[in-house]
Structure formats: C-alpha cells, structure tokens
Specification:
mainly alpha, rod-shaped, 20 helices, single chain, 627 residues
C-alpha cells in the first residue's frame, strides 16, 4: 500500500478519528481495510490496537487480522496492546490459520523480529499452519520462515515448529536441484541453529536433536571437497533420516557450484579442468603418491583457499545487493498489486453505491408519490375536521339555548304552581277558621233555641264539614308534595346536564390544548431533524471534498495512463451525482416524515372529536326530533 505524504497526514489523522469513532459497528471487511490502512501508515496505531477487541474482533476476517497485527508489529507497537488480539484469535485459530495466504503468514513471522509478543504468541501457530500448506509455499519463503523460527529464541521448540521442520524434508527434497545458493545457505543455517538449540536443551537427546545434530556437525563444502591433509573421503556419509539426506545433498550441490566458479576463474590446473566430481576426487587421491604432485596440490589448495575467501566476500556482497534489489522489487510489486486491488475495490464500491443510489432513487420516487397521496388525505381530513368542529359548535349553541329556555320555562311554571297552591292552602285555612268562628257564634246565639235533636244534627253536619275540609287539605298537601318532588327532580336533571356540559367543555379544551402542544413539539422536532439533516449533509460534503483532495494528492502527476484519468473523471461525476441524489433523498425523507406526522395528528384529532361527541349524540338526536 503506498505511503501517505507528510502534507496529507493532518487530513489522514482527522479522517482516522472520524472513522475510528464508528468503526465498532462497521462491516468486518470494511473495518479491516480501514484498520490496515491506518496501521501501515503509522496513523493512530495505539487506537487501532485498542479497537481489536470484541465484538469487532469476531467480525474481522482472519487474513486481514493477521495483516493488521503484522503491520502494528512492524511499527513497533507495545506488547501489552498486541497481546489481546493475538491470544484471542490468532493463537487459537487452529486449522483456520492454514487458509491464510503464505505472504501474510510470512509477514507476521517477519514482524516477530521487532515484537517479542508476536514471537512468543504467534510464531509457533504460524509455523504449524505453514506446515499444513507447505506445498503452496515457494522455496525462498520456506527458507525464510525456517530461519525466522530457528533463530527466534521462543518458538523453535514449539509443536508448530517441530511439524514445520519435519515437513521441510518432504517439500524441499524434490526442489534441491533448482534452489539458489542463498536459499541453501538459509536452510543450512536454520538446521544448524535448531540442532544447536536441541543439543543445549535439557532434553537434548530427543528426536529433534538426533535428526538435526548430524547435519549441523557435518563438514563444510570446502572441507568435504578437499579434505584435511590428504583425506580420501569422496562423499558424505548418508544417514537414514530424510532431513539429514536433504542437508547433505544441499551441501554437495553448493560444493559443485563452488567448483564451477573456481573453474571459471582459471585457478585449477589444466589437467583438472572439465573433470566431473568423481574424477576430481580420484585425481586428487592419486596426487598423494607423488611428492611433486603433492606439493602442487598443496599450492593449489592454498590458492583455492585464498580465492574461496575472496569469492565468499564477493558472494556475500552480491547476496546483500540481490536481497536488497529483490526486496525493493517485491515491495514495488506488492505496492503495485495493492494499488491495483484498491482501485478495483474502489470501482466495485462505486458500482455498488451507484446501484444502491439507483434503488434509493426509485424508492424515493415511490415514497414521494405516497407522500403526495398522504398529503391529499391529510388535507381531506383537515377539511372534514373543520366541518365537524363547525357542526359541533352550532349544535352546542343550539343545545345550550334549548337547555336554557327549557330550564327557564319549567322553573317558572313550577314556581307559579307552588305559589298558587300556597295561596289556595292559605285561603282554605282562613275559610276553615272563619267557618269555625261562625259555627261557634251560631252555637252561642242559638244555643238556647235548639233542641237536643237539632244540636245532634248540627254536630253531625259540622263533623262532616270538618272531614271534607280535612280531605281537601290532605289532597292539596299531596298535590303540593308531588309538585315539589317534580321540581326537585327537574332541578337535579338540570344540574347533571350542566355538569355534563362543563365536563364536555373541559375535555374539548384539554384536547385543543393537547393538540397545540403536540403541534409545537412536532414543529420543534421537524426543526431539529432539519438541523441534523443539514449538519449531516455538510459533513458528507466536507468528507467528499477531503476525499477529492486526497485523490488529487495521491494521483501521480503527468500519468500517461489515459484510462485512469477517464476513471477519475467518471468517479468525480458519480460523486457529484451522488451528492445531488443524497440531497433529493434527504428532502423527500424530511417531507415524508412531516406529512406522516400531520396525517397521524389529523387521524388522532378525528378520533378524539368522535369520542368527545359520542355522549352528546343522543341529546343532539333528541333535539333534531323535537325540532
């Protein structure tokens, strides 16, 4: 991945802060790409490491997590920040780690040189995973991994390292003839380091020591070819172990390459040039019998040793140069592949965004049509509500007028009846008293004239009159009592009707107040949503502008590739189109929310008015029938 220039780092830091705030809820692949880009550019690496925690850690793909941890290790992050993700997922991945590409596993193993936490926790599992898929590894990568594991000081005695070293013999044996001197040297150094470690350990007599010790203690190619003072040994002793055989063959091949280099430099005598390995051994063995030839052989050995030392220095220099050039070429190739992958990913992302925008545009069109329909329904509901309110007000006024008129008429009639009955009762009492006085006076005047019979008849008549007067009084009292009871019942009915009217007016007033409060809350909510929508739109535009600035800065100057320029222009047009569509979509969504709120409020008010008018419907129906 190309590094960001220093001028773009403040923008990258700002964008990193924005992305890291919401990365916990992002998709696994998207979050992995963001974290990898930040880790490789050394941008807020401590925050990136702190984000490698559940629940985001479970959503990250294992290959991307391996690359992220390797990049953090290359940047020299502290071990306490790297240990949680390594222990939680990488170290316990098991067979899933074998599915990670070899380049990423090798990168994690290389990062163990700079991070002891990676060497302690992940190098052993990486070696075990590599042992499962070692056939897909190149010889250079296998030798590099062997050297890293053997010289790490932490993982060379782990179960994964043992599986790796046991599998190396099976994989490298068929490839020995095609291996370079650098690869052979790495394999030999790794074998020697493992054997030395196994022999130095308390259990040095185990199978690993027995397997690697003979190879590590075997003579060097120069000693094997020329011997010490006339040794007639022509080949290495072959052990039954496959790995020892592999190392011996590697040493013989290196010796043959050295002989070819010496022959090309015209150092060997004429009679020894062009000989095979077996013929060279036979010729050198025959020189021991002739003193002259023995002296020539010793001179030749001295010259060869000097030349070998020079060649060793030159080979080491060339190896350093080749490794540096190879690393630069690999980095350039990797950066080119990564840039191509990112461009393809961006193109795919733009295509997906266009498809989503297309779907969003069609959905927004349908939503706008539904919004217009809902708006028309809301207008109809408003008109119906106004008509119902007017009708309710008119009926309320008519009911109040009728109630007041009926109450006034009936009360006046009852009061008149009560007054008339009281007057009649008063007159009756006066008539009774007057008749009693007249009777007493008549009795006093005619007492002497009346006989006993007449007195009896008069007494009977008076008793009958008294009975009649009493019956009339009782009838009048009963009529007055019934009138008073009717008056009290009517007064109670009027009081109940008045209470019902007051309750209805209170409910209507409360409903109107609630409606006003809801309208105010709705207005405030709409204002807040508009403000948030405008802020979101401004932030989106700012991010798009920053992205355009980054694309212009990252774009190579005077690029001869016309297709990339066309792609960038197309991306700019698509981004402008995306801005327009986002604005339209946000406006349609705001309008739809507003219309839906109005529609719900209108339906609620309609239902509330119907519920409030339900107690008055019988009275209104009676008023219509009476009218």
């Amino acid at each position: 991945m190309p590094r960001l220039p220093k001028s773009a780092r403040p923008i990258a830091e700002a964008l990193a802060g924005v992305e890291l705030r919401g990365i916990t809820y992002a998709e696994g692949s998207v979050a992995a790409e963001i974290l990898l880009a930040l880790a490789e550019n050394n941008c807020q690496i401590s925050t990136v490491a702190s984000k490698l925690r559940p629940p985001l850690l479970q959503r990250l793909p294992l290959p991307d997590l391996v690359s992220i941890v390797a990049a953090l290790g290359e940047q020299g992050l502290k071990d306490d920040l790297l240990r949680p993700p390594l222990q939680a997922k990488v170290a316990v991945a098991g067979p899933g780690l074998a599915l990670v590409p070899p380049s990423r596993l090798l990168r994690l193993a290389t990062a163990s040189q700079q991070s002891s936490c990676i060497a302690q926790t992940a190098l052993g599992p990486v070696a075990g995973a590599a042992a499962q898929s070692l056939e897909s590894w190149t010889a250079e990568d296998v030798s590099e991994l062997m050297l890293l594991v053997a010289t790490s000081g932490f993982a060379e005695n782990s179960p994964g390292a043992k599986r790796l070293f046991s599998r190396v013999t099976e994989v490298l044996t068929p490839r020995l003839s095609a291996l370079s001197a650098t690869v052979l040297l790495k394999v030999v150094v790794a074998a020697g380091a493992v054997a030395a470690h196994c022999l130095a350990s308390p259990n040095g007599a185990n199978s690993s020591a027995e397997r690697w010790a003979p190879a590590a203690s075997s003579p060097l190619p120069q000693h094997a070819l020329f011997g010490n003072g006339g040794c007639k040994e022509k080949k290495f002793p072959v052990d039954k172990d496959m790995l020892e055989s592999t190392l011996q063959e590697a040493r013989l091949l290196a010796g043959c390459q050295l002989v070819a280099m010496l022959e090309s430099r015209k150092i060997l005598p004429e009679q020894l040039r062009g000989l095979t390995e077996e013929e060279l051994y036979n010729e050198l063995s025959g020189w021991e019998e002739d003193p002259e030839k023995l002296r020539r052989r010793q001179q030749t050995e001295g010259q060869l040793r000097q030349e070998v030392e020079k060649l060793g220095e030159e080979v080491e220099t060339l190896q350093h140069r080749c490794s540096a050039a190879q690393s630069r070429a690999l980095e350039a190739q990797a950066s080119q592949v990564e840039a191509q992958r990112r461009s393809e990913f961006q193109l795919g992302l733009v295509k997906r965004q266009l498809q989503s925008l297309k779907r969003g545009t069609s959905a927004a069109s349908g939503l706008a049509q539904r919004c217009r329909d809902c708006q028309r329904k809301a207008e109809l509901f408003d008109l119906e509500r106004e008509a119902l309110q007017k009708e309710a007000a008119m009926k309320k006024k008519a009911w109040q007028a009728a109630s007041s008129q009926a109450a006034d008429g009936e009360a006046a009639q009852l009061l008149a009846e009560r007054t008339q009955l009281q007057q009649q009762l008063r007159k009756t009492r006066e008539m009774v008293e007057l008749s009693q006085l007249l009777t007493d006076e008549r009795m006093l005047l005619e007492k002497r004239k009346m006989t006993s019979g007449e007195m009896l008849r008069e007494i009977a008549a008076l008793e009958e009159q008294a009975d009649d007067v009493e019956r009339n009084g009782q009838r009048v009292v009963a009529e007055m009592r019934s009138s008073l009871e009717r008056l009290a019942q009517r007064s109670e009915d009027l009081r109940k009707a008045k209470d019902q009217a007051e309750d209805w007016l209170g409910a209507v007033w409360a409903a109107l107040n609630q409606q006003r409060r809801e309208q105010l809350l709705l207005h405030r909510r709409v204002k807040e949503e508009d403000q948030w929508a405008s802020r979101l739109q401004e932030r989106t535009e700012a991010l798009v502008d920053e992205l355009a600035v980054l694309e212009r800065q990252a774009q190579p100057q005077n690029s001869p590739n016309q297709g990339q320029e066309e792609t960038l222009r197309t991306l700019a047009l698509l981004q402008q189109r995306r801005k327009t569509l986002k604005k339209d979509l946000s406006s349609h969504l705001a309008m739809s929310r507003h219309v839906h709120g109005k529609l719900k409020d209108a339906e609620g008010e309609h239902k509330l008015l119907l519920e409030q008018l339900r107690p008055l419907q019988p009275m209104l129906r009676d008023g219509r029938e009476q009218s």
